[in-house]
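About this split. The held-out portion is used to measure sequence recovery: a designer receives only the structure tokens and must propose an amino acid at every position. Recovery is the fraction of positions where the proposal matches the reference. Here is one held-out target exactly as it appears in the evaluation file.
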């Protein structure tokens, strides 16, 4: 349940008419459509609803400081640029408003809902990523199960891996990487200094992706720096040196990133 510190804003929030974004034909929204609608929703959000969302995120930031970053992104002056993942979070917030009547609904529980999972898998199904697609779909569904079981030590590494795996798949599909047995080669020699132009890391893949489409630099999942706790701790988590971030909040952020990534990748033209 939501922290008791938020209770003061609940009465005002409950009295506000819920702002809803128009549904696209057949319910399909991808990439820029989601971002545009989410930005419009954010700008039209009532003061009480906005306060409620910001306080909720800040309350959840105790276990995952990056949620405070998202709260700050959503608490800017009107018409300020809002980060990609923050807008995708707003989109998820609209889904909650459409499907949940309880103002005390725990934001983190949205990952377990059929409507969020359907939304993410619809975005995934729109991808053109070659032979791995069917198996990767099953793996993502396993991540949902791990989240519901609160097995976050399994869920979190799996999500990090799928974020990189999806990027690898899309770079291969678009011809920027070429697979040679277990190795991946930089086809256009974008990354300097690689022996035999062999790709060794997510950083290399992210650099190539930004050359393919500059908007990849807007995706938090592929920022190889210390700008967030989620990216900063990725390496140590995957290599077994960090065991302090296996929690629901980190898993939630990674699912939002996965949705952001799949939504954007589905808009890439061949």
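Reference sequence for scoring:
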């Amino acid at each position: 349940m939501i922290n008791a510190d938020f209770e003061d804003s609940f009465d005002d929030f409950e009295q506000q008419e819920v702002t809803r974004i128009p549904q696209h034909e057949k319910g399909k929204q991808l990439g820029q459509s989601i971002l545009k609608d989410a930005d419009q929703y954010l700008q039209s959000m009532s003061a009480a609803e906005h306060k409620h969302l910001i306080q909720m995120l800040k309350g959840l930031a105790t276990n995952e400081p990056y949620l405070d970053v998202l709260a700050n992104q959503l608490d800017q002056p009107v018409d300020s640029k809002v980060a990609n993942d923050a807008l995708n979070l707003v989109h998820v917030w609209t889904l909650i408003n459409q499907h949940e009547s309880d103002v005390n609904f725990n934001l983190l529980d949205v990952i377990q809902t059929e409507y969020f999972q359907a939304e993410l898998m619809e975005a995934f199904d729109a991808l053109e990523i070659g032979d791995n697609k069917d198996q990767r779909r099953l793996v993502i569904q396993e991540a949902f199960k791990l989240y519901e079981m609160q097995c976050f030590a399994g869920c979190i590494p799996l999500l990090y891996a799928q974020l990189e795996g999806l990027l690898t798949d899309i770079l291969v599909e678009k011809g920027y990487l070429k697979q040679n047995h277990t190795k991946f080669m930089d086809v256009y020699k974008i990354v300097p200094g690689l022996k035999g132009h062999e790709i060794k890391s997510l950083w290399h893949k992210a650099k190539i992706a930004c050359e393919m489409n500059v908007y990849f630099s807007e995706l938090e999942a592929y920022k190889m720096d210390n700008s967030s706790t989620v990216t900063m701790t990725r390496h140590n988590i995957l290599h077994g040196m960090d065991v302090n971030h296996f929690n629901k909040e980190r898993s939630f952020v990674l699912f939002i990133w996965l949705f952001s990534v799949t939504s954007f990748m589905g808009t890439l033209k061949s």
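Annotator remark: Residues 178 and 185 are 5 Å apart (CA to CA).
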